[in-house]
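quick one before i forget lol
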Amino acid sequence: MAHSVEMPELGESVTEGTITQWLKSVGDTVEVDEPLLEVSTDKVDTEIPSPVAGTILEIKAEEDDTVDVGAVIAIIGDEGESADSSDDDAAEEEANDEAEDNESADSDSSDAEASESGDATDVEMPELGESVTEGTITQWLKSVGDDVEVDEPLLEVSTDKVDTEIPSPLAGKLLEILAEEDDTVDVGAVIAKIGSGSAPSSSSKSEEKKEDKAEEKDEPKTEEKEEKKPSKKSSGSATEVAMPELGESVTEGTITQWLKSVGDTVEVDEPLLEVSTDKVDTEVPSPVAGTILEILAEEDDTVDVGAIIVKIGDADAAGDSDDSDDDVPSEEHIEEAESKEDNDTVDEAADDSDADSGDATDVSMPELGESVTEGTITQWLKSVGDTVEVDEPLLEVSTDKVDTEVPSPVAGTLLEILAEEDDTVDVGAVIAKIGSGSASSKKEDKASSKKEDKPEEDSKKKEDAKEAGKKADKAEKDESAEKVDDSKKDESKAEKKDKTEKSDPKSSGASTKVDNGDNVPYVTPLVRKLADKHGVDLNTIEGTGVGGRIRKQDVLAAAKGEAPAAESAPAESGKRSNWSTKSVDPEKAELIGTTQKVNRIREITASKMVEALQVSAQLTHVQEVDVTAIADLRKKSKPAFAEKYGANLTYLPFFVKAAVEALVSHPNVNASYNPDTKEMTYHADVNVAIAVDTPKGLLTPVIHKAQDKPLPEIAQAIAELADKARNNKLKPNDLTGATFTITNIGSEGALLDTPILVPPQAGILGTAAITKRPVVVTEDGQDAIAIRQMCYLPFTYDHQVVDGADAGRFITTIKDRLETADFESDLAL
């Protein structure tokens, strides 16, 4: 009788494996436990033995195929037996069982159920992720007596990491439920029993199976065609965009923000929405180009992986999807006329770029992070003479904390580049000049020739065109063109208004002296930090960007007194005029007196911090370190390091390097304890997590195999991970596998802290603020008082893993390495 060979479980949290090589072929004879094939996973490469003896009748998965755990990969039977014989035998057995059931149909139903349960299969609580030991049943999707198919959702389970549906491992009838809703069940515990599948079948099941086999090849294709046709009709040849897979064991994501709206045009790989999971916050790009026709999931909705969240129309089909185009010709004519106007204007601006240079806008090196004073230009994305739009990427800049694109603050023509690639430029220094652009040229040309135009009639025509477009209720190519044209005109108006305000300080003060209250538009982190630095209240600024967005120039103008924001709140000047605004985020004022749902990162942080203190014995060891020698070396090497490696040399890479070396020397600290098995694991690699403060909360991306990285690579890895964390670019692998954590508590001036470690890690090291202090030193055998660069190193450890003496020895090793400061060869300059 034929036996199905399935892909076995190959480790905790491993859900699939890739077949690298078949060691046997169809027709070969195998013995029990004889190697059958080789399989590779993300954790192990191994041989899979044959579970039975016999002849290989069929291989169902080819080499290089990635197969889910539990999927059938081969069929082994007796020599001469066909691969389908197992199905025929099963059909015969089912027919016999059905005949017996029909004979006993008039007997007591309990007896029938008892006979079914004799062939019942136990359904267990599956493994739902690394370190997950139990799950809570939130809902049964089937009831006792219901029929279920293989992989049909059976119940919903919630853990501390994921909420997911559990599929049925086989087809049959649900005979018994052994765990009720809201019960918390250990992994591996039996939660239900399912009959063999023959019980609920009719007497004609074997005949149906034969018919199904005969039509097996043709029927799926027909069904696929029938399913696709209505989806095209309903969405106008729309492409359905599903919630993507966002990491191993992640089954759902919460939509935090839609970056596009219905009717907007998107390009391939253009960010479409932001999604949050229990492991990562990230942007989801559009898989196709087109127009957004329908959004099927709202913000804050939690959506399963694979569920449809939006429909995007085909660019060509959008114009053909509605026959009512002829009813709104006025809109097309208006758009064509506006498009021609703007194209002519762009050409004129390009021809007169020299003339525009008199009105050029200086582009400065922006602030790219706290304590970042300079940036290195890695690449110019535009050349002199190119036309740029507001917020279009202009250049790429690298600092010690972030590698990022710098957008253009204005629309226009790039007239001059003042800093070349690989130049390191101070924050605030002018790096380019952009002319006033097509919008300014257009307004100047038309001011003399078309003063008698009627703007009211133009706006009325636009409104009529928009109303006609709404009645048509379709997404067209021309609609996206209209939006681009309108945005250009809005930008032009904003620039003209900005110039007028600068030329007339009184009118500028009147226009910006507006308390926006809760209606402050979206402000980038860079603008918020700039406002914080200059003590500018964002609520009192009227933005000149697209849609009223507050730009960097608006904050600087307010700080210089051109837009006297401080005068806009005379009522509070008496109360808060002497309050400190240093490190104050004005946006947080909106939180006063409110109750709000926390984001996913805060929710997980809250849970994990409390859990960490409950399951580990934490205490903190502190030593003081003299880093004067490192400060001198850093100051001397910083320019050459930036020139060679394209990264700023901060103190943190020195601390990380010293800690990594100490962890290799003290493997008992780079360890994890399992209280259930009473075993200690000493990790082969030093995977260091670096705590990063982001607008959404604390994240700890990981430098994997840090023991193999020289100091420059550690510095580059820190900058790269911090950038990814702050820009929602982290992948699940970036946040997993840490064996130790380092947190820079001194970034906000902390002299001392007691960090909380997260099990199964055994330790976390804090780096406090470096301050100049008078210290007693010994010189030539005499005590003297000297000014030294000093800092504290608090080391929190789990007393289950590390004893106090071991903790002292570990920190002493780090202290000695830092005070000796023999890092010159590590810098390789």
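fyi Residues 251-312 form a domain with the OB fold (Dihydrolipoamide Acetyltransferase, E2P) fold (CATH 2.40.50.100).
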